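Page 47, continued from p. 46.
Same chain as before, 328 aa.
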Amino acid sequence: MSAPSVLFLGGTGTISSACTRQALEEGFEVAVLGRTAGSTRPAPDGCELLTADLDDADSFRAAVAGRDFDVVADFRAFGPDDVAARLDVLQGQMGQYVFISSASAYQTPPVRVPVVESTPLRNPFWSYSRGKIAAEDLLVRLHREEGLGMTIVRPSHTYDHTSVPFDGGWTVVDRMRRGAEVVVHGDGTSLWTLTHATDFARAFVGLFAQPAAVGASVHITSDEWLSWNQVYEIVAAAAGVEPRLVHVPSDAVARVDADWGAALLGDKAHSTVFDNSLVKSLVPGWRATVPFARGAREIVDWFDADPSRQQVDQRMDALMDQLVAAHR
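Result:
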């Protein structure tokens, strides 16, 4: 018998690249479809590269013509129109469609924690989350009315060795090393969950071609809960410095930068921790094993290995100076 096949729509991102490697390790035949090959996270040896533009139905259809896939994992759909376009092309050519949604789709601000999969979906602050919710609504309707074999996965803050977990990215670490103050939203005590991409990937691939996962919505996160103050302190320790933290209300951030503020008010400003009982029941034996202290060292080591990676966002740096001056 041939190995089960999976098509990744987008396979070189923070999360998807780890999932691609995991699927290969577990014996799947893996195809990755995108416009170009990634350079930061190149597709691993052993996978098939399909070149197409997902926004061009003819290009997409030509790339997958005559092909059948047991699983299609879609990392590039952000709203219902994207999902509808994928299903139009792939109708009759796939077994299970796995949609990557977002844990930011859950009711914001949260009414109770830990968050479970039955928590209502509502985020009035962030258009990104509302797009994911609308896409989920479409998939649930198609599953109920037409029997679409779909699974919805909601990642929270998932990172790899290339991903500084702050708005502004490496700019924050650069400020720490310069001795400049860094902006922490709120009072820094809200709880957050950071999940290493390799931990996510092991659970994610465990849902592939699994009948019990069809029709399900499931989040995949670490069980390690950290305050934002701790997150900054852990990264600073990995960078070999003591951080100088300045606490700034999230709505004050939103007044100077709408996009940064939306990502805070619609997600990071709220204590968000998760009950992972469902994924643990669907993927027996799975648990997240990478503590953030280890992940932070991986991040700093990767940036330090090549100084050209240490890009400072001058606009964000100036905004942080402005906020620090007003709130220190």
